[in-house]
Amino acid sequence: MTSTALEGTPAARSGASVRAHALKRMKTADSSFRAMTLAAALIVLALLLGVAISLFVGAWPAFQHFGFDFFISDAWSPPREKFGAAAAIYGTLVTSAIAVLIGVPVGLGIAVFLTELCPPVLRRPIGIAIELLAGIPSIIYGIWGAYYFRPFMQDYLQPALITTLGNVPGISPLFQGPPLGYGLLTAGLVLAVMILPFVTAIARDVFETVPPVLKEAAYGVGATTFEVVGAIVLPYTRVGVIGGVMLALGRALGETMAVTFVIGNAPHIQSSILAQGTTISAMIANSFADADPGLFTQSLLALGFILFIITFIVLAAARLMLARLAHKG
Amino acid sequence: MANSLYARRRARNATWAALCYAATVFGLVWLTLILGALVWKGAGGLSLDVFTKVTAPPGVEGGLLNSIIGSLIQTALGLVLAAPVGILAGTYLAEYGRDAKISVVIRFINDILLSAPSIVVGLFVYQFCVVPFGHFSGLAGGVALAVIATPIIVRTTEDMLGLVPNTLREAASSLGAPRSLVIRQIAYRAVSSGIVTGILLAIARMTGETAPLIFTALGNSLFSVDVTQPMSSLPLIIYEFARSPYAEQQKLAWTGALIVTAAVLTLSIAARILAAPNRGGR
After folding, report:
1. Total-model pTM
2. CB atoms within 10 A of CB B271
3. For chain B, give me the number of helices (H) and strands (E)?
């Protein structure tokens, strides 16, 4: 059986011992290649462990020094060596919530358009255009947000919100303060545009797992496009869509560059979403260069560790949900 | 009665359809606005100086040479580190360990790494490659980019090898080829364009990364090809110059942004074209 493979090689032509030798060499090569691939796969595992452990070790002195206060204090004062993560965590959650609230419906709308409404000729070009939006690096969103979107917010959207929603009882505290352009809402909107293509891409993929026969049956009994989407497609793909939303949320939580440029980088908690704030990642990006090696750096590493844990939980949940849908399909 | 129900259903359908059209227009408008701004602000600054002069303090005519070279060096470093690990790990997941228990864990971890915040990766590499040596370096920047690129290559390699028909592997094995030879001579060849696609996507991702470089490569206003020293790169210089009060530095930031975006989008489109025949043949 092995002789066929070896016929062309010089080993086959000269004696049985040489053949045995070649066979042995092949076996070694085989097992060493296998070992190499396993080692590489274990490196992937080691990377994640390395991230978790190195951040935790670096952050431990800060956690130890501040205790639980680190999570609930919004003080951030390098000269007094007082650090708390609350303002950054708050900003991270609020901007991501705004991003999901706006990015997800729009992203789903585009996915429905592409799978159900779009003329076939336009499907590919529009699909590619949306994917290009996903390919634009986050620093570009940052510089564009700072030069174009922030002035737009300052001149138009924020004044409009302050004069309209700012006077509605109940939600008025959310829309107070001077329109500076910088702020949580601006950052949230830029994030919404960034996560929108991810939502679209995943939603489109999971929409395609719906068996055509189910949709055809619904159309056959006279359902409109949106009755089909609402009664067949979305219920069938619910788990996958939620997984995609969580994946997009994970992106928004960890995004740095797009946020840093427009959020104002003020470590305070304010009720208004027009107010300047900060996020975990923006805080790290902004302060790290000036941080001295002591408690300041340790506190920033602690912020990084918190961000890692939050995104790990969200991303893990997302992957588990997407995996559940894949099993079904 | 029946007629009004029908009309109501039609009206609701039309409303939702209109909203979906609006969502699509919304998405396309952003793309147009961003690309338009890049060309509008960035194209004017494109000149030979950008590619031949190094970054300069305000008031002095400068270019982006050191940043472009820095980006190329660090991306190359990232690729050299990430490609072998990524391809081999993807090979393990798709071939040797296809049904192994550990593969389930590794796949899961790889998916997490794939979308982990890049700033966290930067902090990790800072702890590992900057703190021990006592200074920032281009090498640390390359390592950070490699950590970001590896999961992309693992994922595409695994997916692509999964497309190789088992009959092809069985045919090679029945001729007596050992497993490693089957993988390297048959499976890799069958999906070489798919693996290259993954590498192109990884390069595209590395080209635009900024956050992890802030505390690894740091940036350098001088020309340097020494990877043990701090090194500039295009995203870093955009980050720095975009916040500069000087008009000429802001202009260079936009030109840099245009160059980065053009490079990233070209790579993504190239990857898509390369991947297309594979997908069609499936």
Report:
1. 0.92
2. 23
3. 13, 0
